[in-house]
Amino acid sequence: MNKQKYLQSCYQQLVQVFELASQHKKDDKQKCRTEGFMHAGKALSVISHNEAVAVMEQAHFDVFGESISDRRGRKASL
Hints:
The protein has 78 residues and is mostly helical. The protein is 78% helix and 0% strand. It contains four helices and no strands. The protein has helices at residues 3-22, 28-43, 49-64, 68-76. Helix 1 (3-22) packs antiparallel against helix 2 (28-43) and helix 1 (3-22) runs parallel beside helix 3. It is globular, with a radius of gyration of 13 Å.
């Protein structure tokens, strides 16, 4: 699997996790699988830490319409 396919797979898994979270239907098992998949990519040097963070931010923005830090800050102020 090349880097682009790996990042696309990470993105798709993250979108699923975030969509469930947006519906208040968290799936901890799926979240852990996705985190493990991303960690494996970093450990095998398929993707870098920065690429993992970027794909996570993109998936989060595509689902929630805001960055992870913006959402965290907004939720903390509630």
